[in-house]
What does this fold into?
Amino acid sequence: MRRLLASESFEYNQMQETTIQRPAMTERPRSFHRDRPVRTADDMARHMPKVSVRNLNFYYGETRALDQVTLDIPQHCVTALIGPSGCGKSTFLRCINRMNDMIDETRVEGEILLDGRELLGPKVDVVTLRKRVGMVFQKSNPFPKSVFENVVYGPRVAGIRGKNVLYEIVEKSLQRAALWDEVKDRLDDSALQLSGGQQQRLCIARALATDPDVLLMDEPASALDPASTSRIEDLIFELRDRYTIVIVTHNMQQAARVSDQTAFFYQGELIETGLTNELFTNPTRKQTEDYITGRFG
Ligand SMILES: Nc1ncnc2c1ncn2[C@@H]1O[C@H](COP(=O)(O)OP(=O)(O)OP(=O)(O)O)[C@@H](O)[C@H]1O
Ligand SMILES: [Mg+2]
It folds into this structure.
């Protein structure tokens, strides 16, 4: 009978699985360096909350996905939402532009203020709200139309018709999304011919075309290669002075690289919020420490 190779043995496979499923515990960083300037506590204090969330509960049927979440999102800052899969990050993001309204059998309690005005009430015009609060998803979702038509989609819905005005919007939005130079001669080409990274920047341009104040990004770079990811991160940094950005990411290095404030969610609760460098180097809650050092999630 043939002897088993080490790689075929039960113990060997167990060992491999154990290694994969339980990554080695790492120390949290003692200090924090990043190339881009981060907002200090004093800077942050000068920025008014653009969005204020108070005691937010969210239910899918009987299941509570958010539990008494309270968070201020300062204007012209980048707020990162982190936490293990299923902890409620996307649900929280979708509350801010009322995208959850489209899901049946859901219920929301609490308060979300945009510039001090309640946005959850029945009288709020969600079309107008979504123009002010744009959203970009994990998987880029350009329409099967030309680059030009993708960008002008929102403005056209808003009733803007003049060709020159639309062209100006296209140029401005694509420039802000750092895509203009690559596509200015391809505006009539199908958006589906662009690379994955370009398609994601096109979706950002489409979100910017309605001139929003807030940009919600749900894992915008998780499907992209490192070079495209780095372009998106540069872009987030450039957009920070003009917009208020909330980004969901599973990549803690990315949160550390791009955000000013980080909020850690766990099982629907907001466990800890802080300046990004403090939360990563000196978390106050044990669950945060365990998460950022890779003990779970
Ligand atoms: N449309 C839905 N219907 C029912 N339950 C949902 C729906 N969307 C999300 N949930 C549940 O709500 C909880 C929070 O989900 P959510 O998608 O907000 O988590 P997440 O933190 O974004 O996770 P991930 O990191 O995997 O994207 C999960 O338990 C999920 O199963
Ligand atoms: Mg999600």
Observations:
- The beta strands are 49-60, 63-74, 78-82, 106-114, 117-118, 133-136, 214-218, 244-248, 261-266, 269-275.
- DSSP finds 13 helices and ten strands in the chain.
